[in-house]
Design a protein that fits this description.
Helix content: 25-40%
Strand content: 15-25%
Radius of gyration: 16 Å
Distance between the termini: 23 Å
Strand order of the largest sheet: 2-1-3-8-5-9-7-6
Number of strands: 10
Length: 196
């Protein structure tokens, strides 16, 4: 089974990264569309929204790269909304798949419940988190981190867009804090895709 509507977030000024991604995805048989993400440093973008979770009152703000990545994911969700795509696979340019990814992905699609909103084919920092086994290689984990490889469904867009309209935390934490507790998020374990 093929991944649906694969879009990869790349930055034009990251020499070698897009080429590595292109060669790797060709090698493992994944068709994809290049999506130029927001390079916050080149645009001069920052957030003034403080991240207070770890150190309240410090007025700490996340680095520019997190602002750019958040905006890049947000733009892809908007693209999905405007085009009416039912499912979109979103990859970041440091993603890496094993050669047998397709059999693992096919097993996950057969096991995931029909109510899914996000299917995390890549994840991180899940070992100590509460979880519930669904079937096969699919788990409900509260909540996975990293956004280097996931599939989102159209039915999740309205809430995701409403809850992700501003940047104040890294994108994975922002999804955990404001979005995923209200959606059906399933995680493939062991993860199919890793970060290079």
């Amino acid at each position: 089974m093929k991944l649906p509507n694969v879009h990869c977030i790349c930055l034009a000024n990251s020499p070698g990264r897009t080429e590595r991604l292109r060669d790797h995805l060709r090698e493992v048989g994944i068709d994809w569309t290049y999506f130029e993400g927001i390079d916050a440093a080149r645009w001069g973008l920052i957030t003034k929204n403080p991240f207070q979770l770890d150190n309240p009152g410090t007025d700490y703000v996340i680095p520019q790269k997190h602002v750019g990545l958040h905006l890049s994911h947000y733009m892809l969700w908007r693209l999905m909304e405007y085009t009416g795509i039912e499912e979109m696979t979103i990859l970041e340019d440091d993603v890496q798949f094993p050669k047998d990814w397709e059999s693992q992905y096919t097993a996950a699609r057969q096991a995931v419940p029909d109510d899914w909103d996000f299917l995390m084919i890549g994840s991180g920092l899940t070992a100590e988190k509460p979880r519930r086994h669904i079937a096969g290689n699919v788990w409900e984990i509260f909540w996975p981190q990293t956004t280097h490889a996931y599939i989102i469904r159209k039915k999740a867009l309205k809430l995701t867009l409403e809850t992700q309209r501003y940047s104040y935390a890294p994108i994975d934490l922002a999804l955990i804090f404001r979005t995923w507790p209200r959606l059906n998020v399933y995680t493939v374990q062991p993860r199919i895709a890793v970060q290079n």
